[in-house]
Every structure is written in structure tokens, then in C-alpha cells.
Amino acid sequence: MLPYGRQSIDPSDVAAVVAALGSDWLTTGPRVAQFEADLEAVTGAPCVAVSNGSTALHTAYAAAGIGPGDEVITTPMTFVATASGACLRGATVVFADVEDDTANLDPAAVEAAVTPRTRAVAAVDYAGHPAEYDALRKISERAGAVLIGDAAHAIGSTYHGRPVGTLADLTTYSFFPTKNLTTGEGGAVASPRPDLLDRARTFRTVGLVRDPARLRYPDEGAWHQEVHEFGLNYRLPDVLCALGSAQLRRLAGFKRRRAELTVRYDALLGDLPGLRLPTQREGVDPMRHLYPVRILDGRRREVFDRMRAAGIGVQVNYIPVYWHPVFEDLGYRRGMCPVAETFYAEQLSLPLFVDLTDADQDRVVEALRQILGS
User: Fold this and answer.
1) Which one of the listed residues 31, 58, 129, 179 is annotated catalytic?
2) What are the chain's domains?
3) Which of 79, 199, 309, 343 has a CB 3.0–4.6 Å from the CB of 63, allowing a cystine?
């Protein structure tokens, strides 16, 4: 089965992990700080490494002080963790619809959803294409809300010349194997605001405070540490950070290859009836995590099943979040975001990963052409 996404591991990655395994540190050592510095060079903002993309979101909501009584506006066209992280903090999630062309959060829908209880707006850079952060920034500032970017798909992307990581108050990343780079499992939170970054780092480390200037009882002894607010153990080990730093050295090459494959798909599929290709807005330079096409005329299920039967691992990204039973049980109902639901009914992700060969891509295209032409 040809997968829709897959990690790229080379000897330099293996060597980095082996070196970490032979060191004195398997976790909370020097490679964590190095990976965070390497990430900052790409994202444009200081970073805190965490255990995965979902915990990155939970950490970001904690850093933003989200809690009971607060509302968080977000998109339904994402993995469930974008919303569930806010729910786990006791907040109410308000789903706003998406733009028809990018499937990103629609600023107009966000503005209509703002209430006096809005405390955060959480956008998602769907498929690696950054959301409209300038418009979302204006809305969030007027509302007195924190702007959060879920960039699980978008490390390496830029928006009007600015790297994703500098566009929101808090930006989260995922380094799952199918993402643009991998640490096996892993994630990060970036922020240009020192106060938010410090809160994220403390939450990530079980809430522990060791800075003498912040201790309530500073004279207890050199061993002393305190917890002022509850946090969780969301640390990313040195071994995985070593892999992350090695992967970051290859990121520019990853981006070039994903761009080449995207251009080939555009050229090979541009004239195929019954198919709508992904868009790219002016001023955006995406690191394409997905190649999401839209299958028209109600044929998405048929195409999905037949592509899978042909050994091509297409995927659907994503079920509208409020369709999950956990949200249905909270009172959310289908029909809330019609643009997102129409997108979901048509969306299909074609294989896209760095080591996808031209021949494999030709196989994907030929299979899709045969199905849609029959």
C-alpha cells in the first residue's frame, strides 16, 4: 500500500539518535535546548519542545490562561485536538466556518462569532497553507483575545514573507511521522511573547518553578522547587530532540521536494473533470503537508474505496470536529458550518511525502484518471 504520508529518515538522523543514546542524557538534557534553538531559527520565535502536537495545543491554551467560562473560536476542519485541548481547560468551543478555497478559518465567520466571553481565536494552517493571520489578528485584538496558530501542517511555511511562528501570540507544531519533519512523536509551542513562553515552559514541566526570584520560599535550600499552578509532564526527551535537530537540517530539502511534487500534481491533474485542485493565495509560500483535492459530483466515497483497493493510501482530512460523538453529546449539531461540511464531503488527500518518487506519483495520477473517467 502506497501511504498518503511517511517520514524520511537518512543516516544523519540515525547517527544523531545513536549519539544521544550514548550520551549521559536521555531526557531533559542539552539536546532539548539545542532543538528549541534550532526550531527558533526556522519559526522566527522562541520555542518550547513538548511531547506531541496535541499536548502542544493543551500547553498553548494553558499558557493563554484559558479556563471555565471562556470561549475559544476555532475551525471544524482540523484534527479533534485543536478543539479538545480547549475543552480540557474547561472552555466552551465555538466553531466558525471556513473559507471555501483554503479550508482555513474564515475571518468573517470569526468576527460574527465573537462574544464578550471570547478569550482565544485558534486558527489552523490547513495542509500547510497559512490562515489569514492579519485579519484574524485585528479581530482578536478588538476582542481582547489571544491569537493561537495550529501550525501542525505548516512548519517551514511563510505568510507575506513572515515565518509561521511569528504570526500569532502562540503557535503550535506537530512532529508526527507524517508531518513535514518528525521526532517520532513530538511537538512544540512558539511565542514571541516572553510571558506566554514562560507559562508554556512551566506547564510543560509539571508546573515546577526553580527560579529563585519566583520562589515563595527561596531560603529552603538549593534543592528546593515549587508548584504554583498545576502543569503536566509534556517534556520531549533528548533522544527525540536529537532526531528533530537532524531533521531540521534537512527541512529546506523537504520543502523543495514537496513543492516539486505539488507542481507535478497540478500539471498532471489540471485538466481532469470532476476534480478540484488545492489553491495557493498570493503572498503565501506553503510547506505542503497535504495535497487535498476535492472529488465532485458526490463521488468521494467511491474514489476513496477504489483508490484504496488499487493499493493507494488516500486519506480524508478531516471529519468536521463537531461531528464527533463527544461534541454531539455536548449539544453541537450538524449543519453549523456548511462550507466546512461541503468541503469534508468532497475532500481527499493524495499521497505526498518527501520520498514519493515520480513513478509512484504517476501511478496515483493514472489510477485517479481511470476512476474519474469511468
Assistant:
1) 179
2) 11-248 (3.40.640.10), 251-372 (3.90.1150.10)
3) 199
